[in-house]
Amino acid sequence: MENVFETIENVNGAINGFVWGLPMLILLVGTGILMTILTRFFQISHFRHWVKNTIGGIVKDKHVTAHTGSEDTQISQFQSLCTALAATIGTGNIAGVAAAIVVGGPGAIFWMWIVAFFGMMTNFSENVLGIYYRRRNSRNEWCGGAMYYLKDGLGAKRGCKTLGGVLAVLFSVFCMFASFGIGNMSQINSIAVNMNTAFGIPSIISGVILMVLAGLVIVGGLKRIAAVTEKLVPFMAVIYVVGALIICIVNIQNFGAVFSAIFKGAFGLKAAGGGIVGSGVAMAVQMGMKRGVFSNEAGLGSSVMVHSSSNVREPVVQGMWGIFEVFADTIIVCSLTAFAVLSSGIVDLETGEVLSDQVSTALVAEAFSTVYGKFGAAFIAIAILFFAFSTVLGWSQYGSKGFEYLFGTKSIKFYQILFVLFILVGATMDLTLAWDLSDTFNGLMAIPNLIGVVTLSGTVVKITKNYVDRKIRCKDVKPMLSAIDEIQKIHEEEIA
């Protein structure tokens, strides 16, 4: 059995190295750069507009937060954002940022920002395509995601029907497996370990409690998940942001040195110690990219599956929520974690060397303990509990959509029950291999998704230009809201 696990680890290591090597760097960042250029830097040129229609809309526009009726299978724009953020704001915002600093040095944070900046437009494009190519299932629920714009978008191009269909199936398979790794066992294991370390709670007890709580929510479907996440996500995000901000304010005198360490480490302008000796800029770039994507998931095609269930009609409106999702996750939450760690004195800002034996979550707990004392470790353990548990809820929806595409709507309940049972497995096992497999399936999900985004980039540009002409430039133009009529026409022609 040990030989089997060793073989799996070796094979996974080889795949992981390829998936997260230079090809993925080019594909991920390249797609973001391409969509940024094609949309004329939408995230900057229309900054006020997307802020007004996302975070500003929560306060001023009742349609953004208004709940749909009990018989309506759609969810509100705000609920779709919270469910997506539930999946993205997780252990990557705490453990992932710490790991990036330990291995890639402070410079990794700069590259995390770069990936996030361009990732905003990747996520925007995914959501635009998700709304445009979504369809209703037998329960009258909206179904959208990479599998649908691969099959009906890419597949509609001349000579690409088979390719689109195959990539759609591959994406769904990778998504389903990733949901048990990144979206379930890895998150639950982090909770169980932290609860045991901070409060002495046995892992089996944590596993049983989490399994019951998750089961009550997940088996209820998207409407119940959305109802929980729209309350849980704002609460947990605000508490964590305030806690990290206090540390940053206490150590504000170190901010000049922190910024200097980040930029110098990013470009190798001086020798760095600790984790990046001998690896330099390359390791900073790789860790920044890898942890950034693990955190905000831009390019994976994951969050689009829940964004597509929104009651919004305009593809670009949901696209703007995608921009805000990446901004909130990485630019705000991840950055606060990084600054809390770097300004706390546990990293030598001159050399980049970590002055602590702690790694991952424990490193962040130590940083918080410099201000909060013994309560710092408890604070991080509770933050991990909320962050990771919400990720489980969000990813259960992603995995169910991949499972539904492969096996049909009636099979979803089986997936949900299996997903809940695996929570107990995650709490009680050593999941080093599961974390590595999570990274692998994350990367494998991204490949077909990004192929779809790049090949359909022209469609994204047309839809975006159509929206800007109508809503910002006030031109009288026919709206581009859905490709469903187009798809139906193609299906009818095929049957004839």
Describe the structure.
The protein has 496 residues and is an all-alpha fold. The protein has 23 helices and two strands. The protein has helices at 2-19, 22-38, 42-45, 47-52, 55-60, 62-65, 77-88, 95-104, 107-133, 146-152, 161-199, 203-218, 222-250, 255-267, 280-296, 304-307, 315-343, 360-372, 375-407, 412-428, 432-455, 457-472, 484-495; strands spanning 135-136, 142-143. Strands 1-2 form a two-stranded antiparallel ribbon. A hairpin with a 5-residue loop joins β1 and β2. α7 (77-88) packs parallel to α17 and α11 (161-199) packs antiparallel against α19 (375-407). The radius of gyration is 22 Å and the shape is globular. It starts with a helix and ends with a helix. The model is unreliable at 1-5 and 271-279 (pLDDT under 50).
